[in-house]
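sanity check this record:
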Amino acid sequence: MDTFNKLTELFRRFPGIGPRQAKRFVYFLLSTQPGYREELVRLLLDLKNVIAICDDCRRFFTANGKRNLCPICVDSNRDHNALMVVEKDVDLENIERAKVWQGTYFVLGGSVPILEKKPEERIRLHEFQKLIDARSKKGLEEIVLALSLTTEGENTTHYLLELLSPLVKKNGFKVSTLGRGLSTGLELEYSDSETIRNALKNRQ
């Protein structure tokens, strides 16, 4: 396979990108100025050096050279007794844009498909349990499961509810899910601010 087709295949791995779009990306790069391509290559190579994963919420953030915690997790104005669980980073960003949540987050990094035999390998289960244990000792009051209303999202919600059930009895915190406002089949990253606001307001 030549370079053109190899690059096309790499672009096809991007979420939501089909073969035609992937090929357009390659043609676009061929038609741009050399400086643009060089800057793109430089930034891609720099990603691993400037982007880190937060030790607490597991989101990607620009490393600050200090503690390996993102700005949200170190913000003393956030409610650290309230934790919202989302599937991916773009969901977190969408909720932040809506400005309706003052607690902290945890990014699962995926979802659990129906009939999945090893769900712990599809999401950051170990890290999640570790964070819950630490937060419970500091007065955790509520966990909001803010997952998409897709088949996989709902299955992940049910899986986490079962997982958290004994911890709720032991530690006394509340677990809620997003309420009315989100349409069935809708991914959280595509929801507008008003929809998120209503879903969070009516959580149950």
